[in-house]
Records
---
Amino acid sequence: MRRASDTTAFSEFAEACAPSLYRTAYLMVGDHQLAQDLVQEALVKTLLAWPRLHDRANLAAYTRRVVVTTSISWRRRRSFHERPSDRLPEPVGADPGDAVVTHDAVVAALLTVPPRQRAAIVLRYYQDLTEAQTAEAMGCSVGAVKSQVSAGLQKLRRALGRTFDETLPTEREVTS
């Protein structure tokens, strides 16, 4: 438990040393807001060490040292060099959660497609096999693969509705 006199003494110390600590912090990090954060963190560390600090004459030196060592440890962090900007460096994509919902809906609809058509669609689009490779895997002709895929995609489109049309290949993509 801290005594009221300790709290008062620390408050007076912090108020008296804050400008000097801020100048030191600013020169260490080169950013006004980071310097304020650094001073605040150094003062918190000093407050936590307050009961152990018996030589009150060296409090400013101790806290300045905390500013320096904390600044150095901040610089070692990978995230220290990241800075916010007005522009995002990469284009913002779709919400990853939407992809999970879409995937689950497509899988559920795929399970309603007859087995041979499902196999043709899975081998062709999920396994990314050519029509010839798909035909070989299914033990049928390339023409049979094309017709199975075409019929299966029509059933998938009906099962999914118009909202998922952009996720399924078009007829031109199927026949090419």
---
Amino acid sequence: MDGVTIHPSRVIPHPKGDILHGVKASSDCFEQFGEAYFSTINCGEIKGWKKHTKMVLNFLVPVGEVQFVVYNGTDFFKIILSKENYQRLTIAPNLWVAFKGVSSQTNLILNVASIEHNPDEAENVELEDISYDW
């Protein structure tokens, strides 16, 4: 889908605890740094739909499993990210995104956003406003 890219991310095994790479300024599709924040999502819960008009999202899931769905008005793109499928999901502005907690344990998302949070640059609609079979 245009505006959605997946970037393999490194998990570096270490006997005292693994290192999970995030993002570098030189990483593919990384535009600029605005802010980084963590979000949790409980198992079976769904957050979304949200569409940013300026922000580029860079999602990583270091703990748990999270299903992301991106909608461009016509088609859906779906992926489950986790430590076992450790990749960075980059989403351009003007695409709808929602996500669901899959693991019964903690589901942790890191977003490295291109701009600081501004509630005026995003739209939210109810889950039932975009028909998707979760």
---
Amino acid sequence: MSDSHRLRAPAKVNLGLRILARRPDGYHELESLFALLDVADLLTLEIARADAPSVRLRLEPAGTGAPADASNLAVRAAELFMAEAELALRVEIALEKQTPVAAGLGGGSSDAGAVLRALDAFAPDALPPERLAKLALRLGADVPFFLDPRAAWVHGVGERIEPVRGLPELPLVLAGPGEPLSTREVFRVYDVLHPDTRRSAGGPPADLSRLRTDPAALAALLHNDLEAAAVRLCPAIRRLRAELAARGALAVGMSGSGPTLFGVFESPAAARAAAATPLQKPGWLRVATARESG
């Protein structure tokens, strides 16, 4: 007998990102306001006890750029959970990709978080919450957030997560140049540009409701310390920023390490109107909403 689990793996957007320091181990201390998007991958897991652990992935549609082999974070999450919990399971994962790959939207990390949630539901006593959180961090800095995906102030290297309340829904237009960007390379260039970053933590805005009524406060929040490094590797980001601003965005930000940019618009109708015309050069546009939960 097997258990079936169907889950949404929502994408996230970074409403600003500040680098506080580079640690001796090479990781970066940061702080960022994570919001969920109404863009999500869909996963169906069939889980059963077995004589030996196995994971099989079926990925759809073809051509998304997501790996269909053991390097996929969803597969790695299942394998690591079984190894850590000393469980032998047969795990079959059907993954329908909707979130762009290598776009700074956390798609792969969210898939991994969804797999961990499903396995934890199947074997709730296998790993205590603190071990599950440490396991998630081994998979990637964003994965712990997706163990309980809801808007949060995230700091440290991604392991310190403080849920926030009162985040208004923000109508967005997402824009990408149609090419992936390596997070590792963006941080490498950032370290070249800023070899001695030392900043104290700031914390989330005191009044999140102002983000819909105060464009200056919104623009200040959306500053992303990684954008200059990302532009060095992907100059099209600068063009995307200018296009979103020209289409009437109240403010423009870059999510994560890029290359996806997003414009915040006054209303869903304004966002739809802004996305109605294709980009002047290759790339993609997509209407979305940032909110507290996915």
